[in-house]
Amino acid sequence: MTTDVISSGQKFNQSVNTPGVTYVDSGLVSSTTFDGPGSAGNTDPLLVIERGGIAVDIIVNDSGNYDAVAVSSGGLLSDSTLLGGNTNIYAGGTADGITVNDAGLEISGGTASGVAIQLYGHEEVYAGGSTTATTVGSGGSATIYAGGTADALTVSAGGIVYDYGVVSSSIVVEPGASTNSDLLLAVEKGGVATGITVSASGDTDAVAVESGGKLSNSDLLAGNANVYSGGIADNITVNNAGLEISGGTASGVDIVSGGHEDVYAGGITTNTTIGAGGTLNLAAGAAATGTITFNGPGTLNIAGSTMPTATLLNVGAGDVINLTGVAYVPGAFAFSFLDQLNIVDGLKDYVLNVGDLEWPYQVGDHDGYVELLPCFVAGTRILTTAGEVAVEDLRVGDTVVTVRDGGPDVREIIWTGRRSLDISRHAEPELVWPVRICAGAFAHGLPERDLRVSPLHALYIDGHLIEARALINGATVIQETETRWVTYHHIELTEHDILLAEGLATESYLDTGSRHAFEGEATLQLHPDFRPLGDADFCAPMVRDGEILAAARQQLLDRAEALGFTRTATPALTAKADGADLPAAQEHKTWRFTLPEGATSVELHSPAVVPAVLAAAPADSRRLGVAIAKLMLSAGGERTEIALDDPGHDGFHNMEDGHRWTNGAAAIALPPHRGPAVLEVTLCTAGQPARWTTAAIRDRRAA
Length: 703
What we know:
With 703 residues, this protein is mainly beta.
């Protein structure tokens, strides 16, 4: 065996392929390849770096599982590649910028940073050791043992991390094809993973929290994380991803934007929040405790016949509760008593705890199971002389602050009106669907929170009254066409005036002969629309068209774009036949759809928009999809033009100037043909009207 000692001030630069040990003691080794194998039955190292020694640009080709390289206290291994054997970083030693390919890197009390683990490579961090900014690639693995720490890990496709220690501020990315499995992070007994971001695709478990493991303060952006019996998840945001509680426990979970938390038998979730587009699924035998707070609209599905003990908070319009374990019996109803919601279904009574229930719930039939539909959310805040007060809490004799003509002024309430509606039964639902003015729609803090008003309720803008329906723009002012139940409140003052609702100037109620639309009156109108029944003394000019309205709409459109909304007119067109999507090829403004045998009609689908919604001066109020200039059918070697005005078509507007608009969901009647066929759809120059590319602000409520 040969021994080389590189001391202070010395350098070593060569290939080493004979048995022996190179000691770097306060010296420098660079650009050197160690081929090994070592001596004494492959138990001695090839390279020892200690006491100020530095090794840079080293390649280790050694085989075996012993320590080919040892970095002791004061030693540094940097920018090197490990292609075989093991490298061990002991207490006080440092490794930086190491690539591990079909080799091992052990951190036994030392530190490592910038490690890249590739195929068949592995990094092991023991008690007292730490690694930072490690990337685990396909086929690679990292194991963090008790007492070891890993920070800023990135786990790529096919890599996997086993956590028995502490992993923090790390990213788990898309799995894809894997030489191991789709599991990317396993939090084992005693392991803690915190500050993790998961962006894995697919429905497999990207993260598994085993018994004794804990995942906390993390974001799930795609894929699934599964918490098994004995595992813990705490303070997790589930955004367009899945969190499964398979016998483990979860607390402080926030479910939003297509995310779902699925709690199975034996699993427990505590203090859960269901945000907009979020879903909480409770299987039979699952437990939900503490609170379930809706910040939605969101969905709660309860599969068992035993109701959760959690208290439901902030349930409002758009939120849905499905009792999928309770068969619907015609005539089922619900009533509230002492902060409990009682659902009477046949001869059985089911109880939900509802800490802040304000309005009645309706019981519906959802595919044979019980569905609960709440009415309009209460709580719109009106500025009074006693501060902001929820509109439902105002009473005759209370005084509110008014702001017309510069204000402020004070006026007394002389009448209050309320009406709850089932819009699905209304003859003209567009007259009662709520209009939502989103927080900040006009300017910062205007309004302070989302404000819902009836379509004909007027806002006070630059000295004029403008109805809410005239300001709808599809982004920051939207009509809630999916809302079924709504409760409207009105307050009448000593005279018609302007008050502040959520900080926005709006009109008070003006009696124009429509009081019979409200509850408590001698005669109750069956289908109220709250329209004035005659001329009245408005406190300001009412504007329904012209330059003043156009200026107000332009202000809202400009503000929407400042908030990040953008527009596009790029056509988007798909087709179906017999319920199946059709293969398509696009060339300029022509789409070619390959038809199945025997197809007699084709459905055309595209985004649809009302042009007036995005215009300052509304003109075209039709719902438009795409403008078609020509339809051609190619079959049996022949091309046949299909008349745009064929009466067999459906979902079209009238012909105009050589083209015809769809409504976004059109059906084309095909002429008789045999064999394989292709439908050509050519759009005219108009193509498709401009639309928002950012989804309109969703239904929100401040907590």
